[in-house]
Structure formats: C-alpha cells, structure tokens
TrEMBL record:
One of its GO terms (molecular function) is phosphorelay sensor kinase activity. SUPFAM superfamilies: ATPase domain of HSP90 chaperone/DNA topoisomerase II/histidine kinase. It comes from the Bacteria. GO terms for cellular component: membrane. Residues 155-230 form the Signal transduction histidine kinase internal region domain. Keywords: Kinase, Membrane, Transferase, Transmembrane, Transmembrane helix. The keyword Membrane applies. This is Histidine kinase. The keyword Transferase applies. The chain crosses the membrane at residues 12-32, 44-65, 77-100, 115-134.
Amino acid sequence: MDSVKLKISIVDWLYIILIGACFGFLISLFLYFMNEDLQNISTIFFSILSAVSISFFAFILITISNDYILPRVNEKFWYLISFIFSFFSGFLGFSFSYYIFSLSEYNIINFIKPFWFYISITIGFLTFLVGMILHQFISMKYRNESITSEVLETKIKALEGELNPHFLFNALNSLSELIYIDQKKAEKAALDISTFLRNAITKDSLISLETEIKMVETYLDIENIRFDNNIKMTSSFDEDTGYIHVPKFSIQLLVENAIKHGYKSEALNIDIKADSNSIVVTNDGVLPEEVKFGTGLSNLQKRLHLLNIGKLEYKIENEKMSFIIKIKR
C-alpha cells in the first residue's frame, strides 16, 4: 500500500495550505483586474478562502482514503480511488466556499453564479492533476528518505560489525580451563556467554541505557573469569535516565577500553554515572600518557554521530580516566 498511500506530514500540509492560499491570492488579482465590479476585498477573500477550503477537503479526504478505504479494497483500485478523492477535494472545496459566500450579496458571487457548477468541475479536474503531481512528489520524497535511511543503517551495521568482541576468544579459553577446575562456575560462564551473544545479535542499533548496563554486567562476569573478579563496577542513574537510548555496545566498549588500558594486575574500579545530559565512565587504573582514539573509540564516535546521539569526550582528573558521552538534546 505504500506505493500509493500519500504519507503527508503535518508540516507538508501546512506548506500545501500556504501555497494554496498564495495561489488563491494570485487568482483573485486576476479577477480583480479583469472586471471593475470585482475590484473589492471580497474578491480576494473569496479566492483565498476557496484555495484554503480545497486544501482542507484534500486533507480530510486523503486521510479518510488512507486510513479507512484503501486498506479494505483490492490493490488494483487504489490509484482510481485516490485520484477520485483528489477530484472531489477541488469540487467540494470550491462548492463549499461558494455556498458560504452565496449567503451574502457579494459581486464575486453574482459574477460566477451562472456557471459556478462548471467551475467546481473544472477545479476538480485541476486538483486531480495536482493530486497526480503531489503523489509523485511525496513518493519521491519518501523514497529518497528511505534510501538515505537504508544507507545510514548499512553504515551503522558495518560499524557494529567491527565490534565482534575479541574478548570472546579469551573467554572461551578461560572457560575450557574452568571446566576442569570448577564445573559449576564453568556452567555459569557458558550461560553468561550465551546471554551476551543473544543480546549482541539483536537488530536494534539503539537500546536503553538500562539494557546496555545489564549487557556490561554480563560482559564483566565473563571477563572476570580471567581476572579473578578483580574488575569491580558500580553504576548510578535514575529511572528516567535508564530509558535514554544509546548505541549498542557503547558503554561496553568504554568498559572494555578501561580494562585493556587501565588494568594493572590488581583491582580495577569502574564507575558509571549517567543523567539526561551525559554518561560518564571512570576508572582508577593506569593513566595513559596520551589519549588516542583507536578503532574502538573512533567507531563509537562515528556511531554517535550517525545516530545523532551526541559526541564522545574524555578527561583526566584526580588520577582517574573518564570517557564522557555527551547527550545531544
């Protein structure tokens, strides 16, 4: 049904009504200078009202067609019904404005009274043609938006594809050793890996902060097989902040980066704090001499930009390294 359905936004309708009013004003100027009897403000008002009325009827009829009629009829009749409704938008819109003005004795009404019906039919055919043009324009607009969205999604998926967790190989190696040492821990580790992979293969590029934190907790359970539970993490955010959407693997990547560059053969503490403005991931591990955005951090920066979420920053303060995701409002 998308091939025929006119998906016109409220902003599009405002533009259509505004253009219609301008077109009506131009017609009124033509009538104004064509006949001395029509040189009064009522001519201009009637023309503008007619154009706005036609736009309003188009809004009503297209909405009814899209929501209640097209879904219930055979696909081969969709174009016919849509263009019939376009015709009636012009016919009924002009007829309505004529009826309203006919209740008073304006010169413009006396001028068109003998052939108002034929004018209504003519305008109906004009709106039929406009409907065809509008359909092509709106279809092209949304087709382009769809292509742009698909290209963007492809870029994001390609970036996500770079994040296949290399830690998994280490985790599996640790798991194989753990099987001979502690079978219960090995069983739990296997379930943790399964849970993480199940979350990792979801199609959603954006997930809630709360879901991302749970993934990070699962990730740390896996990593702590190798690090003897020396990686400690705390997180704090309120209920509303938990619903903020972030790129999948964003916090996990920052935590992984903290472990990779900050772990120093003893306990590593990672603290995650979030509010509506930012998400801060801080660790008390080894401080870098120079902060470089390698593959992982550059990947995250690109995804934040493509998804229009915000940007990635960092700071070193009180002997602690922090990465900050600034949330775009």
